[in-house]
Amino acid sequence: MTIREKEQQFIDDFNELDDWFLQYEYLIEMICGVAELPEALRTGERRVAGCQSGVWLVMEHEDGRVRIRAHSDALIIRGILAVVVSLLDGRTPEEILNYEMHFVDATPLKEQMSTDRFRGMAAVIQEIKKFAEKQ
Question: Which region holds residue 63: left if phi is over 0, alpha if psi is between -120 and 50, else beta?
């Protein structure tokens, strides 16, 4: 499944939920599918600049693919990061470089997020793309 197809599936599932509490629960469930990033890896050089809450990315190139782990100290952002990781982890650098984030704009998340948090998520995607370019 392509990134866009997987993202559209997330958008469709999320938009079927008609209240914010259910959407919030959905994001929390997404967290359960992602391995916890140990505190020892949440270092200053791994922290994403421009994020209102603490966000850390650990990335590596492995067999021509980009491996991504992420964490945030804010629960809702951790849920959104889980979506990003599920979309981009294990993809080729080319797939990542061609990705444009749609799920925040295509769901009620944009209405629920502050402008600073929205910019922070864009910074996360940019960091992942910068890393992918280093192939």
Answer: left
Maximum Cα–Cα distance for the chain, whole Å?
A: 41
User: Could you tell me the CA-to-CA distances from 92 to 8, 77, 97, 130 in Å, in that order?
Assistant: 19, 24, 9, 13
Q: Is 32 a catalytic residue?
A: no
Whole-number Cα distances in Å, 117 to 44, 78, 98: 19, 12, 23
Q: Which member of 51, 55, 88, 96 is catalytic?
A: 51
- Cβ contact 93:135 at 8 Å: yes
* Contact (Cβ atoms closer than 8 angstroms) between residue 82 and residue 95: no
| pLDDT tens, residue by residue, 3-36 | 999 999 999 999 999 888 999 999 999 998 788 8
